[in-house]
Amino acid sequence: MDWNLVLVSVVTLLVAGYLYVKKKFQYWEEKGVPYVKPQFPFGILKEMGSTKHSSQVFSEAYNELKGKNTFGGVFFFTRPVVVPTDLELLKNIFVKDFQYFTDRGIYVNEKDDPLSGHLFALSGQRWRNLRNKLSPTFTSGKMKMMHSTIIAVAKEFQNYLEPFAERKETIEIKDVLSRFTTDVIGNCAFGIDCNSLKQPDTEFRRIGKRVFENTSFEIIRIFFLVMFQDLGRMLKMKVNKPEVSEFFMRLLKETTEYREKNNVKRNDFLSLLLQIKNTGKLEGDDTDLGKMTFEELAAQTFLFFIAGFETSSSTMNFALYELAQHQDIQDRAREEVNRVLEKYNGEYTYEACMEMKYLDQIIHETLRKHPIVDNLFRVCGQNYQVPGSKHLIEKGTFVIIPVYGIHHDPEIYPDPEKFDPDRFTDENIKNRHPYAWIPFGEGPRICVGLRFGVMQTRVGLANLLSKYRVKTTPKTPIPLVLDPKGSVLTPKDGMWLQVEKV
Q1: Is 333 exposed, middle or buried (0-12, 13-18, 19+ CB in 10 A)?
Q2: Fewer CB within 10 A of the terminal residue: the chain, N end or C end?
Q3: How far apart are the first and last CA of the chain?
Q4: pLDDT tens string 72-120
Q5: CB 451 within 8 A of CB 143
Q6: For residue 497, what are the contacts with CB-CB under 8 A and spacing of at least 6?
Q7: Pairing state of beta strands 496-501 and 376-379?
Q8: How is the beta sheet containing 376-379 ordered, strand by strand?
């Protein structure tokens, strides 16, 4: 073997590769668009998942680019990505020019990974068709139907905390809240009593945790699949972990077969989807929604589970973290909860919970300061001329909306690190740009389940605050350190708070 020839070939390939990447990294400069200098060969992704959480990475990019143009550029590996820095451009992307930005550009491989084909990830006409089928399952009437189930689990949650409160014990509240929302979603999505509050090591809870456990490699792999989707499908790569997919497919197959065989009807999400699957309609509504396959049903139920338990538990977690540090705000919230409950004879009715306006302000401010989904994705479906600009966003270009960065912009929210629920009085909301608060997205692709998520969060917080006080302890993470590997905003070493009886 001619080792000189091998050496020359290797060096040639390395140099060619370097020059290729370097040329790709000139994309934004050649267009005259301000951009964040990329780090070879990862672009902006080098530190993400290892030393920095994604919220920090893209918030820093937003701060660097803001004021230079209505948008700036970054790179995911060699792929150019748009970062909007102007709220009017954001309005165009979400609503006014939505036809250019209908898709999220998330990797889907239904053939090898059926659970990846859910509403959040699907694109084009398939997304529209599925959205039309699912929207009627999240009306206020359907939420009222599930409300009693949430209340029942919340009572168990309240009782679970009592012995800890009597001993004024420090507990890792994030895990407890995740078990509460797991039990809620297990009941509302599958009609299954997960019982994870009493038995934290149940398979349901273990699998739920596994969904959001990522290594640095897995985070980079997910971004790779987003950037190189055709290659991922050719290699039969999956988004979901094998044990997660196997558990949910088996669970749903057994549950749906039992219900259909025994004509079981329940007031839960699965029951609504089974109606659509088998008849194309919901009971009491003659609208033809079109039937649904089992695989489609499984993917949507899976999405309802993972989106419902983690986002709501994290929102409550951060809300309690802030309330523990601001006892005056906590007292005001508790006073409102008790006043409303007295009006409704101590019952957490749907109407009672809807009257807790200050509690809603706390939830809004929590999602402002700690947006669980810290960035939103879109992909440009056709060449888009940016209004009032010479710049063109080319078809196929990814757009990342830095929610965390916008929510912490001092020009929008003065003193952004301060926790202040009064930012969300009706008057203050009217005085702000309507797209300055976007924890659920906006426009046609706004989170379809946001009503359920807020309802679950509201009920959980009201039940806790009516009986207990939360306080900080020496173990409370002040200042807060985020887990860089978290798929969503997550404290690195848990959330330790003291619970005591009021």
Answers
A1: buried
A2: N
A3: 81
A4: 999 988 889 999 999 999 999 999 999 999 999 889 999 999 999 999 9
A5: yes
A6: 170, 171, 173, 320, 321, 324, 470, 471, 472, 473, 476
A7: unpaired
A8: 71-76, 79-84, 398-401, 376-379
